[in-house]
Amino acid sequence: MNTIPTTFNDALPSYTAVGGNERLASTGLSAVLLNRGGRYPRRTLFQELEKAGFDYVISIESSRERYDVEELSGRFPFVRFILLSEDISPGEQINLAVSELSGPLFFVLWNDLRIITGGGASRMAERLHLSQEELQKTEGNGSAFKRLCTVPVMQNARCETLPTLIAPAVKANMVKTLVFVPLKEGLHSLYPFDGVGIYDRDRFIRLGGFDGTLKNPHWQLMDFGFRACLWGEEISVTQLVKLSYDGEVPATDSTPEANYRRFYLKNLAPVFRGDYAHLPLRRFPGYFIRSGADPFSAWEEFTAARSWVKTTRYRFRNDARAITDLWEDIEA
Fold first, then answer.
1. CB atoms inside a 10 Å sphere around CB 110
2. Which residues of 26-58 are buried (b: 16+ CB within 10 A; e: fewer)?
3. Confidence of residue 314 (pLDDT cuts 50, 70, 90)
4. Considering the chain, what is the average pLDDT of its residues?
5. pLDDT on residue 206
6. SS3 of 242, please?
7. Residues 290, 293, 295, CA angle at the centre, nearest 5°?
8. Pairwise CA distance, residues 210 & 161, whole Å
9. For residue 42, what are the CA distances in angstroms to 111, 165, 251, 260?
10. Is 318 helix (H, G, I), strand (E, B) or coil?
11. How far is it, in rounded angstroms, from Cα 99 to Cα 108?
């Protein structure tokens, strides 16, 4: 079993970076463009991002389709193309893009999404800055921005608002999610739908980014969102930025498998007491019975997670038992 990462990007994949040496603007907000495949009009897409005024654009290219990178890098010198040696998960792609950026904010987008309202990169970034009064309340110990991740409203190709607000429901150590249409400003979401949102880079790195050992995108997002919530970070929606999918909304696979087992051990199994969390040995028998793994593999998985929880124990602010009640209090 792969070791659970305890630091951000402790194992970068092999890649080549092309272009992106010129800053387009100085807003503090860059764009990270993930590519889902398909023959989208890339020149038009980069022109739209140029018009929006992002400082830089990081475009993650698949390990196959690269026929126009040289031409596009000449036309759009603010775009850095990341050429992957092999395909990696969306969370790993975001982590990699963040390692190529230095600005304080980044907006994760897909090539089948369009920004339809928002006011441009400068206006988006401006809305996320803490006021002077809010900064004073942080006593200089926090970020200059409001939260870990700000999630836009999203709609399908028929202009219908999508239920992209995700709330956790935990019962008898089983987890599920409830989805809602975001109807007002500032509602909390467990994780950014499809990974899309404006992230505070420093907070993202301190959180450890996405766990690259989780290859299933659903459980990767669930792990990120639960960890953020357990460690006291905030993900919430804004009505002031709206995106639209060009085609079908991507489906997710939430089948409980090996990725779920790691998610469970990292997020649902730890117990919070006093000012830290721990993964008690009494959790192992139940985990082993439900895991379907052989005793050696189950113990290896359990002890790896126990070690990770011990290393990060003082980052926890609560445990999974408290999350649903806490969520209900927040949304009340």
1. 20
2. ebbbbbbbbbeeeeeebeebbeebbebbbbbbb
3. very high
4. 90
5. 95
6. strand
7. 100
8. 27
9. 8, 29, 23, 35
10. coil
11. 14
In 233-263, which positions are buried (b, 16+ CB within 10 angstroms) versus exposed (e)?
A: bbbbbbeebbbbbeeebeeeebeeebbbbbb
DSSP 164-195: -EEEEEEETTEEEEEEE---STT-B-SS-GGG
Contact 109, 242 (CB under 8 A): no
Predicted pLDDT at 330: 47
Q: What is the pLDDT of residues 108-150, one digit of tens each?
A: 999 999 999 998 999 999 999 998 887 877 765 678 999 999 9
List beta partners, residue 110. 34
pTM of the model: 0.94
**76's tokens:** 């759009």
Two tokens, residue 283: 């959790």
* 165-171 vs 57-61, strand pairing mode: unpaired
β-strands 149-155, 79-84: how paired?
unpaired
Question: Residue 273 is inside which H or E element, if any?
Answer: strand 271-273
Tokens of 276: 């830290």
Distance CA 268, CA 262 (A): 10
